Amino acid sequence: VTGYSKGRIRVRFGESVSEVMHNVGEKGATNDHAIRDEILDLPLLGVNETGNTGFRFVRIDFLDKKAELSLKEIRAKFIYRDIPYLGFFKCDDELLNQIWMTGAYTVHLNMQDYLWDGIKRDRLVWLGDMHPEVSTIKYVFGANEVVPKSLDFIRDKTPVTSWMNSISSYTLWWVIIQRDWYQNTGNLAYLQEQKDYLFPVLERVISQIDENGSEKLGNRFLDWPSSGNQQAIHGGLQALMVWSLSSGGELCTILQNEDMANQCRQAVVQLRTHVPEIAKSKQAAALLLLSGMIAPETGNAVISDRGVHDFSTFYGYYMLQAMAKAGNYTGALNSIREYWGAMLKLGATTFWEDFNIDWVNNASRIDELPQDGKVDVHGDYGDYCYKGLRHSFCHGWASGPTAWLSESILGVQILEPGCKVLKIVPHLGDLKWVEGSFPTPYGTVQIKHTKQSDGKIKTTVDAPKGVKIVK
């Protein structure tokens, strides 16, 4: 809002202080996906709105020389879904509480007209990214229309003969999310809308198995940090095929297509005859463990080696799940504290597209001007398509700890579609107590666990009518 003068200004938005201090082209600064650096003409006694992007910091430069600009007000607009946080998680470790909420907030910001990957970049619907995001939504917000809207958007844009987002694993994730979403909502009418697409997709996926039981998918991708390890990608895709076709078989039974369900089950049996090498990959180890193709202790040993080195923000969720399946709950909690906690120590308020624990060495905080002699963690790091300041610092796929803490520590597991039956199995690790809530179609379940002096856990659960609790 301007006063009795006008002029030209330059506005730069950023997810770090460093980003607002750089020009387009410097250290990866870009106007891709959203304009973050532009010149504006301000009117006399008028209003100008700009900035269709996600940001934490703004730099404004007055460009007219020997002139005066009267600014009466600078205001930021917050565009978000005004929805309650129905689920919550609290324990005796405040860092874990902060991490849980940061993951929830990261996904909340990306729940725009569709479920985006990042609020600054790419502002697109990516199916693989959606799996951790949907898992977080399930535990924090409950059923929300942004999930089916986004699933259907990509479905309608992708012929059965193509892979979603041009990535084979992302079609596999679509099937897995459909199964998870049905378990959470129990919405059979929505699931039935998928069958004309689901059945031929499953047929195509099954056709990607060779005579030796090995996957032969194209457009091969798990996550960015594993991109250079083709053997690891094979191991991960083999496991994802098992996971996806197992989920697809369940859905086919629900949709009363037993012929297709049997084809899925037979394909899973065939896939299990070929167990790829882990290739020293934490991503491959996590998926192979979760699909039941390697022993839990084998996968846990690979994931736990060198601590959180070689973790990734996306597949970190599955690494945590795999550690839990191996009974290593305290190890998983320590990984969350060290890896996701390090981003908070660097000034993060949302979780990042990627993170390497080595980046913390001699790094400036992102909410401060980079200091001489220190590393600019935003401008100097990154890789692949997110080098330097192009790197997204609010990426929903990094929210895994939020879902994991609710599902594994608070211990909420859905046994019947629509949350009609829940199993509550707490695993406190080194925690003394934990409490929280879980949203269901029938209302919110309140849960509290307290570790007694003898090590046993006292649990209290208050569930709404229509939800059966088993322990």
Overview in brief:
The protein has helices at residues 17-20, 94-110, 127-140, 146-157, 168-185, 188-192, 195-206, 230-254, 258-272, 282-290, 296-304, 316-325, 329-345, 400-409; strands spanning 7-14, 37-42, 57-62, 88-91, 412-416, 421-424, 433-440, 443-451, 457-462, 468-470.
Describe it for me?
38% of the residues lie in helices and 13% in strands. The protein is an alpha+beta fold. It has a domain at 123-351: Glycosyltransferase. A four-stranded antiparallel β-sheet has the order 4-7-8-9. Strands 2-1-3 form a three-stranded antiparallel β-sheet. A three-stranded mixed β-sheet has the order 5-6-10. The termini are far apart. The mean pLDDT is 97.
Placed side by side, the strands forming the largest sheet appear as 4-7-8-9
Structural class: alpha+beta
Beta-strand residue percentage:
5-15%
Mean pLDDT: 97
Biggest sheet details: 4 strands, antiparallel
Shape: globular
SSE arrangement:
Layout: E1 7-14, H1 17-20, E2 37-42, E3 57-62, E4 88-91, H2 94-110, H3 127-140, H4 146-157, H5 168-185, H6 188-192, H7 195-206, H8 230-254, H9 258-272, H10 282-290, H11 296-304, H12 316-325, H13 329-345, H14 400-409, E5 412-416, E6 421-424, E7 433-440, E8 443-451, E9 457-462, E10 468-470
Parallel strand pairs: 6-10
Antiparallel strand pairs: 1-2, 1-3, 4-7, 5-6, 7-8, 8-9
Helix pairs in contact: 2-3, 2-14, 3-5, 3-14, 5-8, 7-8, 7-9, 8-9, 8-10, 10-11, 10-12, 11-12, 12-13, 12-14
